[in-house]
Amino acid sequence: MKISVIGTGYVGLIQGTVLADFGHEVLCMDTDNDKIKDLQAGSIPFYEPGVQSLLHKNISANKISFTSDIKQATEHGDILFIAVGTPSEEDGSADVQQVLKAASEIGSLMNGNKVIVIKSTVPIGTGRRVADLIRSKLTERRVEFHIDFVSNPEFLREGNALQDMLRPTRVIIGTDNRDIVPLMNKLYSFYESSEVPFVITDIETAEMIKYASNAFLAVKISFINEIALIAEKAGANVLEIAAAMGMDERISPHFLQAGPGYGGSCFPKDTKAFAYTARSMGEMTYVIQAAIDANEKQKLRMVDKITAALSSDGNLHGKTIAVLGLSFKPETDDIREAPSIDIISNLIRKGAIIRAYCPGAMTQAQRRLKEVTSSVTYAKDEIDCAAGADALVIMTEWKQFLHMDLEQIRYRMSGNVLLDLRNILVRRPEVRRLFDYRPIGLK
Ligand SMILES: NC(=O)C1=CN([C@@H]2O[C@H](COP(=O)(O)OP(=O)(O)OC[C@H]3O[C@@H](n4cnc5c(N)ncnc54)[C@H](O)[C@@H]3O)[C@@H](O)[C@H]2O)C=CC1
Ligand SMILES: O=C(O)[C@H]1O[C@H](OP(=O)(O)OP(=O)(O)OC[C@H]2O[C@@H](n3ccc(=O)[nH]c3=O)[C@H](O)[C@@H]2O)[C@H](O)[C@@H](O)[C@@H]1O
To answer: Taking the CB of the first residue and of the last residue of the chain, which one, N or C, has fewer CB atoms within 10 A?
Structure first.
């Protein structure tokens, strides 16, 4: 099939690459010329395991190409995926301007019948707005072309994107026209399991499934973070609590890892956008709003926890803190809404000197942190990062930190406090001998 992807960011590029790999002729379009030039040269603007080599393979096989010309992209595909960004506005609402612009251009340039599939996470009602906008452009142009509209939200996780794309837990098809379902089945026939359930529903329900899923996961994380706080005060163990809770299949063991708060380009943005949608309908989302507030509080609690380990009066002047892991999660270079940014900024405000190291997101973090502070020193690895530090903070659970040389780290530090905000070193027998070890939610 001929497929165009409008918006070649994270989701668009991975979707396009996988579809190309399964034999479709894919043209990816983006308004960012520099990005397109880089992609044409085979260079991807983010780190995601496996994507670069899969892309090279499909560029060489002429299965995927790139353009910044929306006319070319609109004309190429029988199926047009919209995967542009939907960032947060100041008031928490989702800014859908990129989506509406793409839709308007598609309507103005369409040269035949098309299937329009929205991958972007959009507020309830946006899909119908997009379909109406395209149809109104066709009416203005007095052309008889027909569109079928599908809301097909994406559930991949960064760092695990290819696997999630090949083995999704479910596929949501939101449409007014169920005749389109066989085409969507055929398009996604590459799934590694024939068991992948397809949920066929209306457009609004599809849009809401995406928000409800992300909001639920955010609630689950904020919930376990709260349990961790109380466990720590009570002398209980959050790891054992989470494991035992998870044995009940109604609860499930996933997404019960306490940490410094959820980050990334989606949970913070989507929970706020959903709460905004509810408010605009005259309703309050008490549970989701609590998860949002708790997540903000969680980052501040981490600042308090680090401060308390180093100072009795809340002053961190002259204290050096080594921070390991800056991305919002491991195996990605994404630092959007990473808890590290807020936590580091607050520690600096209290007078701390920060040394930082991240296996995958150094450049991105440097760029982002430069907007808030110029006083962070960047180290070349975890050992270098520890040099002269009063405390070491594990912010993100990159695999290499699991096996790092703790003797060396301790030797390089001037203090002995180790704050493990991801509980990844709990099972290392030497950790408590070497350090004043402070995990999260347990002694
Ligand atoms: N990043 C993720 O892990 C996931 C993201 N999503 C959703 O997918 C959507 C896209 O997310 P990302 O790929 O992370 O965003 P992104 O910001 O990486 O990419 C968006 C791309 O769209 C381009 N663009 C903007 N306006 C355009 C236009 N009118 N025509 C063509 N291109 C245009 C931008 O230049 C950018 O390259 C968002 O709604 C997000 O919530 C859903 C699931 C997972
Ligand atoms: O809509 C999206 O963009 C995506 O958002 C999340 O994916 P992602 O943000 O890539 O990463 P997650 O693995 O969900 O982690 C999000 C944040 O929650 C934190 N987290 C996760 C799990 C956990 O148990 N504890 C915890 O603190 C992570 O450290 C991270 O900061 C969802 O998991 C995807 O299904 C969804 O498609």
So the answer is: C
